[in-house]
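DATA SHEET
Item: assembly model
Revision: 1
Owner: S.N.
Input lines:
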Amino acid sequence: MSFNTFGKIFRFTTWGESHGPAIGCIVDGCPPNIAISQKDIQFDMNRRRPGKSKFTSQRKESDKVEILSGTFQGKTTGTPISMIIYNEDAKSRDYETIKNKFRPGHADYSYFLKYGIRDYRGGGRQSARETAARVAAGAIARVALKKLLGKRYKVTGAVIQLGLLGCKKDKWNEKEIRKNPFFCPDKEAIKLWEKYLLAVRKAGSSCGAVIELRASGIPSGLGAPIYSKLDSDLASGLMSINAVKGVNIGAGMNAAILSGEENSDEIINIKGKTKFKSNKAGGILGGISSGQEIIASFAVKPTSSILSSRETINKKGKNTKISVKGRHDPCVGIRAVPIGEAMMNCVLLDHYLLNRAQCG
Amino acid sequence: MSFNTFGKIFRFTTWGESHGPAIGCIVDGCPPNIAISQKDIQFDMNRRRPGKSKFTSQRKESDKVEILSGTFQGKTTGTPISMIIYNEDAKSRDYETIKNKFRPGHADYSYFLKYGIRDYRGGGRQSARETAARVAAGAIARVALKKLLGKRYKVTGAVIQLGLLGCKKDKWNEKEIRKNPFFCPDKEAIKLWEKYLLAVRKAGSSCGAVIELRASGIPSGLGAPIYSKLDSDLASGLMSINAVKGVNIGAGMNAAILSGEENSDEIINIKGKTKFKSNKAGGILGGISSGQEIIASFAVKPTSSILSSRETINKKGKNTKISVKGRHDPCVGIRAVPIGEAMMNCVLLDHYLLNRAQCG
Amino acid sequence: MSFNTFGKIFRFTTWGESHGPAIGCIVDGCPPNIAISQKDIQFDMNRRRPGKSKFTSQRKESDKVEILSGTFQGKTTGTPISMIIYNEDAKSRDYETIKNKFRPGHADYSYFLKYGIRDYRGGGRQSARETAARVAAGAIARVALKKLLGKRYKVTGAVIQLGLLGCKKDKWNEKEIRKNPFFCPDKEAIKLWEKYLLAVRKAGSSCGAVIELRASGIPSGLGAPIYSKLDSDLASGLMSINAVKGVNIGAGMNAAILSGEENSDEIINIKGKTKFKSNKAGGILGGISSGQEIIASFAVKPTSSILSSRETINKKGKNTKISVKGRHDPCVGIRAVPIGEAMMNCVLLDHYLLNRAQCG
Amino acid sequence: MSFNTFGKIFRFTTWGESHGPAIGCIVDGCPPNIAISQKDIQFDMNRRRPGKSKFTSQRKESDKVEILSGTFQGKTTGTPISMIIYNEDAKSRDYETIKNKFRPGHADYSYFLKYGIRDYRGGGRQSARETAARVAAGAIARVALKKLLGKRYKVTGAVIQLGLLGCKKDKWNEKEIRKNPFFCPDKEAIKLWEKYLLAVRKAGSSCGAVIELRASGIPSGLGAPIYSKLDSDLASGLMSINAVKGVNIGAGMNAAILSGEENSDEIINIKGKTKFKSNKAGGILGGISSGQEIIASFAVKPTSSILSSRETINKKGKNTKISVKGRHDPCVGIRAVPIGEAMMNCVLLDHYLLNRAQCG
């Protein structure tokens, strides 16, 4: 119900503005006795952190997380875990020139009409800086699920399309994802992507991306029909990420062009184990996990802050032009990978606990 | 939180199985003093009802809704509105042959693993019959919004892709949608669609569809960042519809291939009114409605019940084959149009009320 | 969040008006595979049913519950359980004379001001008839908890004070409670209570009552600090019962006059089992069950519908007088016993599931 | 749903342990454009602060609140307001001696059994220190309601009973409440209270208290039947305060001994205004505010930390004795006054917004 809270049993609430003193979150409902350290969380934070390559925003944030509550002697106590991340490199002056204008594609206009007031510095609350707090929450979910489900549990995200360029998904290589600055799973695609994105950046333009998430080591039975379906909650969680415009589960939008035969994943028993001959469903049937790998993907629109001059209006409703300078990612989709993983981790832990509640 | 409840302020809870005595829903949080009649609701029910053409299931249900509470002298009282729809044409015998087998693509397997028990008759709770109850709830939302926002308020859905066949969206014609059995907005596409679907049906196969929803007459300011974004709640609502695998807002998945210039909708003032030069955002910026038309689309996978023989296992885990007879829609996507509209109506009313709560 | 829903995981939503066609509820989140029959539920319904003695309302309702969904072959399936109870003896004419007046002590006035419309027939939604639906939900909770916790699990309620008359709590006798029409636990008090209530009734007046609930066979660990404390949720649930004005946990309001020594229940180990030397806490410490018997009590105000003429105003704001005839309980507190038990059962099951979610 | 969150639209989530680095809360759903300063909040913090007189704990905390987000240029923006209060005077060594023992009357035992781990330093999360965070949230609610309802809006709490000593409620004097260290409304009672509490303290014992809250300037129509009744939510909120064991609305537990005539508040029109001849209902009818003053009271049990030696067990289940030294309030009820007010402010704002949502 809460506007800034996500989840049912495992819930996190985020707070903070791009250019305020800090941002953070409270994680509530985490199981007790989970060993968790600042390092576990920082690991994911660093993967999302800006300023690491020439392909992301040059804002320099160490994004150091501090845990303020909810752990004792290195373990969760079952009480709320409060985490804080100080803003270090907020350059509010950059935003003086746009404080009375609405940037096209941004939420400046809709925030102003809704609330009658807006913190224009760096986008305030609408800034993707908020997603750092989710990544912190997601790290806790990840650690908890590793303990609850075992080491087989894993969520991996990758950029499978960068603007106009795709990659070969059958070349999916997890080690490769961790090595290149694009989270690209296909080693062969990288060189072209690099050239492409440099060109986009040089042109002062931006491009979108598609991210795919794969989760494995998950038992069947997670997800609660009808309105807490696992895919429904994933869709909600992924669509809540800044700039996301589309969400697919399994075959996703492409399911529309499949035949009934192609789409329904046949089931077989191989040496006493249930297997599926394909995974068009993305591991979810009727909103409940089937035990297969869970696969979701989402599209991130191109960064709205571009150098090109764009038409817009100002607060008084007068026509004007705008060109956004500041420090921006040419493709926000890249840094969306750890954010998508975080949301997947959180949704899965939440549903693990929900299922344990009802079904034991 | 509740598994079978959707919404925050305007909430509905559905209940019932495909082959039980009845299905229904409770609508809670509806504003008082809204004139509403059984006819208003029946109108939408009839649009979803099966058995109306050779392109949908031959199950004969009058789908007559009875209002059991929450209205007095023709008006809502602000108390819960309970509605019931009796099941009339449930042929449970059809399901005897499959009661120990898991139909591929259906939720038989995942329900059984989750709950350890399943009502196999017509799919029980996983049946798309549940969606009739949402349509009843959506009708109330529609009537309430017409009163709150005025007659300009409107939600229209259409099938824009039937299996492999598209249509021309620039030929979108609302009258046409109401006339043909496919909810197709483009008159010219119909003939081909008809032939195609008859062929699919004859082959004992099935196909998917893409449905687009357009809502107009909506003020800016609806939607509450971060985790109750309008698009996030739409995604959750649409993904909760049976067989839906993908959800787009505005440009959706295609946003990934647009440039920053193409994607950001420029804003202009024309004679004192704010206009946008395009609508890639689908009327939602930062999770908040901008006043533009709200556009969402979703993909429905092909009906899983097909005549072709498919491999599967039985309850004992033994390999076996299955061929689903029964009475099924060759394309469940068609009847998803009024269901999608219902979800859109419900989400919009809910957010109208939420926004009124916080922002007055 | 929902106005007419109670609970978090085990949730019920009630609907219906006193003089509408029916009332009912949906129970969501019940664990699957619980054997439950209509009889199990009817047993509790009959204990609440009016018209059984001269000390309760003469309205004749068989209060027969029908289960419409959520069970299959006699067991819960984990899907929503819809139950309906038809209204049989609604005499709406009785209310014609008061339809434009506000009965003092009733919610006529506040409903009208809130909603601008009210169903005056029998109080509409504000009628205590709504509580029948909770009793049905509570019966399911009771059966589920018996299965989950074993036969030791038990909730027993009794009237410990009838208007000005108390009883001896150390004479608490469960068999006696089931025998007398007052749910009085002390055999010796009954005769006087009978005379007293007949006198109250004859005078056209009414009296209040205090009900005590005792729950045993409950493990420690139920209850989730800070805002889902077991006592906090019990207080909310009991206070939501019509006409309840006060709720105590353990020593309750009397805790204020105890010394620190008297109040803190000492803990001892007797033959390997933890025992408490007293139970001032009512079995709840810091919002979490301690394993002791859980004890709560609540006060029900005297029936507001009395024969005596009372001053009031009508819908136009004019001063007038009112004397409520109809058929009313001289002490609504008596029938509140099974209702209180129902709320206790529901809160305990909900917290059992919540605790299982977080702590396994 | 969330364990550490209170409220529906106006929601706050608290975090932090007694001896951790800090405590705090996030306030979500606050209306935008409310002018609010750190001073507004500090005002209430100071009223709850320990160490101000010899009658409260000698722990020295400045309880300085910092606002970290959600305001811009002195006004709320509609986004989450994060507040932090650093712990300054935590003496964890005091707790070394009791780390393996369960203090009777405290939640040591139940926390340990629930979570299998507990932060024993100062009670960790179970400490009443948590209530500082609610007071901060309540201050925001108070300021918002003043803006929304006008200056007539006011909530005043007072201690009306201190252990065995009462006071004359007809001598209720708001100025007096602000002057004496007991929040006592009756000037004449103070001298005796002072002597009494000094004696209790000297004896190393403790005593309980009853606090009464009065709220005025509230429109009719707040409160949403059936399960979000205003009194039900107040009961939940007040019972969630540490050490509270009983909650009354209006006549409360005493309603049981009133006659129907005494209890039902007659309604009259005086010069065009609706008045009630009495207020046994405490301003709430059927869960909805009637426009009268809202009156609630609650009992706080005596401080469980006392010098007297008490029997208990240790973590290994062995019998032992305990005597709690540390720095404790001889009557925690006194400092509960601003906490009760805070909960009342929060509940009222939440219901104001909820009512605006549904009824406009």
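QC remark: The two ends of chain D are 26 Å apart (CA to CA).
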